[in-house]
Amino acid sequence: QVHLVESGGGLVQAGGSLRLSCAASGSIFSINTMGWYRQAPGKQRELVATITTSGSTNYAGSVKGRFTISRDNAKSTVLLQMNSLQPEDTAVYYCNAESYVRRITWGQGTQVTVSS
Predict the structure, then answer these.
(1) Predicted confidence (pLDDT) at residue 28 exceeds the cutoff of 90
(2) CA–CA gap between residue 54 and residue 69 (Å, rounded)
(3) Residue 28 in 3-state DSSP?
(4) Alpha carbons 68 and 55: distance in angstroms, whole number
């Protein structure tokens, strides 16, 4: 089993930056892709960014150029650097890990609030 713990959320003004961190523990050898998703009030959970073990990344169009996902395989940690934050980025951000056999694990979520 994999266990994920997120940190780094908070309140920031529009135009500001935050960095989210997600630490994986447990069966980390089984993890292929790690990523971040977000869910705003009244909306469905949506992809923000993902990164594979080999470093291939995928971003939602709304965050491309503003957010950067990175991964430290040795530390089993994935980071999300968020710049130029806007009020529409306000959401609960969830860390996600997908194993090589497509098993999905979610973190508990961390709140990001961007004030205008």
Answers:
(1) no
(2) 13
(3) helix
(4) 12
One-character DSSP codes across 36-99:
EEEE-TTS--EEEEEE-TT--EEE-TTTBTTEEEEEETTTTEEEEEE-S--GGG-EEEEEEEEE
Dist. CA 92–CA 101, nearest whole Å:
27
- pLDDT tens-place string over residues 42-98: 999 999 999 999 999 999 999 999 999 999 888 789 999 999 999 999 999 999 999
CB atoms within 10 A of CB 73: 13
- How many whole angstroms separate alpha carbon 113 and alpha carbon 104? 26
